[in-house]
What does this fold into?
Amino acid sequence: MGLWGNPGPDSLRDERGILVTTPVESTHQLELVGVEVTEALGERIGESAAAGLVIDLRGELGAGKTALVRGLARGLGVEGMVRSPTFMIVSLHKGPISLLHVDAYRLEDPAELALHGWDDWLASSVIAVEWADRVEAILPARRLRVDLAHQGVNVRTARICATGPSSRDGVALVYERAIVC
It folds into this structure.
C-alpha cells in the first residue's frame, strides 16, 4: 500500500491525495490520510469560495475541523496563524475574502453569536463554524456541511454535502469545484 493507501475501483485520488468516492445523492465521502490532506481539502474549498459561504463543520474532538479551516484560510489568501477560537468563540482573519472562524463548543445559546457580529459578517465573509450542531438554529439553510470522523491512526473521513433549497445553488457549485477532479 502506498502513501495514500489503496483506493477501490469506484474511487480515485486527486493530485493532493484526497480519495474521492462515488457520490451518493448530493453527498461525497472522502478519505483523508494525514493532516496535510485535510488541510488540502480546506484549501481547495477556499480557492473556490465566495463571500457569503457558511461551512458547517462537525466531528468529535481531534477530527480535523481546525486543520480544514487552516487550509480554507490558505485557499482564501488569508495570512497568519489559524487556531481554534475555543475560548474566544470567534476569530476574524482578514484577507481578499475575510474568514470568520467560529468555535461554538462553549456557546450556551446560538443567539450569543449576534454579540460577536454574526449578522454583520454573514454576507461579507466566508464563515467556518466548528461544532455547528450547537448553533444549527441560526445557520442559513444554504451552506456546505462537512462531517469529519476518525477512521484509524491519521486517517479521517469527510462527508461533504451542500444543503439548501437546491443542490445546484451557489454553495453546491463551490462544493463541486472543490471536490470533483
About this structure: The longest strand covers residues 143-152. Residues 21-165 form a domain with the Rossmann fold fold (CATH 3.40.50.300). The chain has four helices and nine strands.
